[in-house]
Each structure stands twice: as C-alpha cells, then as structure tokens.
Amino acid sequence: MAPSALPDGDPAPADGSLPLGVTPDADVDFGVYLHIPFCRVRCGYCDFNTYTAEELRGERREDYPDAVAREIALAARVLGGTPRPARTVFFGGGTPTLLPAAALTRMLGDVREAFGIAEGAEVTVEANPDTVTVESLRQLAAAGVTRVSIGMQSAVPHVLAALDRTHDPANVRSAVAAAREAGLDVSLDLIYGAPGESLADWRTSVETALALEPDHLSAYALIIEDGTKLARRIRSGEVPAPDDDLQADMYELVDDLASAAGFDWYEVSNWARGESHRSHHNLAYWRGTDWWGFGPGAHSHVSGVRWWNVKHPAAYAQRLAQGISPAAGREIPDADATTLERVLLQSRIREGLPVDLVPASRRPQVAGLIADGLVEGTDAVRGRVVLTRRGRLLADAVVRALTD
C-alpha cells in the first residue's frame, strides 16, 4: 500500500475532495490502511516507503499520530455524506510495532471515532518479532486489534543475513506465543529465493513456520527492485540473481506443505486455515472495494478514484499542519485500465475471475488456457477463471492471454 515510487497522475485538490459527480457507495465495503513508515534498518531488498531515524529530517516518531489524526479528520469531512464503518483496518509499514502500543491504539481510536468500526471487523498489525511483548500485544488486543502479521521471512540465519533482516529467528516463537496469549490471530510472512537459499533451507523455514501453528501463512517470491541495495549487489556480481526454476520449486514445496498442514490457498501467495482466517483486508484490494490509505506514500481508492500521498513523513506532516491534503496526485482509470486491473487482481484469488469480466475478444483464450493446464476446466464451465497450481506459477502469462 506504500511502494516507494509514486505513479504519474493528475493534480489532487488541496482540500482532498472527490471529483464532481463521484459519490461513495454506501453498499461497498470500506477499509482503512494506516502506513507506519519507520524501520530500525532498511532491508536490502525492500522498496517500500520507509525511513530509518537518520532519514526523517527532524520529523519525530512520537509526533506521527498527530499527523495521521489530521488526515483522518480530513477523510471524515470528504466522506461525511456516506458514513461507512470500516470492515477492515490494517497497520502496515515499515514496522508499525516500532511505535508504542499506545500510539497505535490512539490511531485506531481516531478511526473508530471518525468512521466507526464494523462489528466483527478484522484489525491487523504488522510486527517484527523483536518489537512485540505480551504486554504490548495485550494492549493492542484490548483496543480492538484482532490479528498480528509477523515478519518471519526465514528460519535460517544465513538467509536472514542475505535479506539484511536483523531479528533473532528464535524470537518468532516468542512473538507467536505472546500473540496467542493476547488472544490474537497469527499470520507468518515468509520470503523465498534469497541469494544462497537452497531448497532445503526453504523447507526448514516453511516447516518451522507451520510447526508454530499459525492461522495464516504468506509466502512471497523475492523480487529484485531497482534502486535497492540487493539490486546493486546483484548487478555488481557480488551475489546471484534469484533462480526462476528454484523459486518455482520453492512455491510448489510451500503449497504442498501448507496443504498437508490443513491450509487452503486463497490467493497466489497466501494460505489460511479456513475462510475466517483469510486476510480480508487484502482480499478487499484484490476485489476492488473502497479503502483510504493514511500516511506518507499511502494509496487510496474510493468509487473508482485513486490517489496517493506525498512520500516523506516531513512533507506529509507539514501539509496536514497547514490544512492541506497530503495527496500528491490522483487518477480515474479508463475502462481499459480498469478491465486490466480486474483481470490482474481477481484472477489471483481462489474464487477466481468471472468470465464476463474478460474482454469479449479474449474469452476464446480460456479454452486454450484450460488445455495448457493453467485454468480449471470445471470452474470455467461455471463461469469463473480459476488458476490451477501450474497457472499460479504462470499467473502473469494467464493475464496476458486474457488481456493482450
């Protein structure tokens, strides 16, 4: 929700208002994303909009909730005619748990006061395993947090070192235990394909994660982003680039192990113990519902309008202190762009893409995708494009076939 590079777009109004004629739909689910842009160190692979203490240009972490409160108040004014309680709230980053639990609970309270939080809402906090305690997680749970997403990444020290991750892998177990004691759902996040990581290393990480009995598991292939430290190391020949075939083997391994442990895939990179433990916040992105992203670099989407905030925390706070929207730009995607996005996102999830959302000229391609073993034939007969496991490995090729 807060990549480092902002897209091009049209100028955004200083008051944050939606374009004339755009009215939020009270029947569409509404979610809230709160970006916490702070990290102790910058991981070599990370391209997210995050800042270490030395990069904050005098902006203080302890003042950050004040800036977010101002944007929440602005959003309440913009959306005031269509009150919708938030069905999901997600604290992402960065490392949200670098802030005290009291700061996070204050922000959650501001969201509750401005919009309301729906009964049974999913409220997630991302966490580094070294930055949580039983007490801090109890405070979050008491404030309404329901779920913690722990950045495990790997259980193998040399793999963590290759990723510039500084946490002690032994602390993952402690963090999971603390979350359980606080009554929270637990997700563990893994990354595969790091330089020097073998298939055996990956098996160790996945088996270690599953042994902790989380409710949800994410496993993402390492992507080399331009401008990162890792990209520079690969370009210089210091470390090898990820191997596509090895990453495919790693994906099949995590899918096998997760399935054997009782997890179902519901999105290409995500598995859960039953539908209730899926990340409903992320599903909202893939389904294209409405959300407001608070914080520097955060993106929002309401009724087909997209906008994104200025990147640096200092610029973000300054604009809000002056009563100006932090939005740096916005766009209303045209019909072709909207179709491409719907195919790209909805084809990734287990419920699949309705065939009638595929451009009419490309629907004949579905039969070929079934023949190639990329799309489930039974689901296609029922009107939905659902990826096979081979299709999940080649999801980009499926999207090209359905849109080019």
From TrEMBL:
Membrane-spanning ranges: none
Ranges where the record places region Disordered: 1-20
Entry GO MF terms: 4 iron, 4 sulfur cluster binding; coproporphyrinogen oxidase activity; metal ion binding
Swiss-Prot/TrEMBL keywords: 4Fe-4S, Chaperone, Cytoplasm, Heme, Iron, Iron-sulfur, Metal-binding, S-adenosyl-L-methionine
Keyword GTP-binding: no
Purpose: Probably acts as a heme chaperone, transferring heme to an unknown acceptor. Binds one molecule of heme per monomer, possibly covalently. Binds 1 [4Fe-4S] cluster. The cluster is coordinated with 3 cysteines and an exchangeable S-adenosyl-L-methionine.
Stated family: Belongs to the anaerobic coproporphyrinogen-III oxidase family. HemW subfamily.
The protein, known as: Heme chaperone HemW
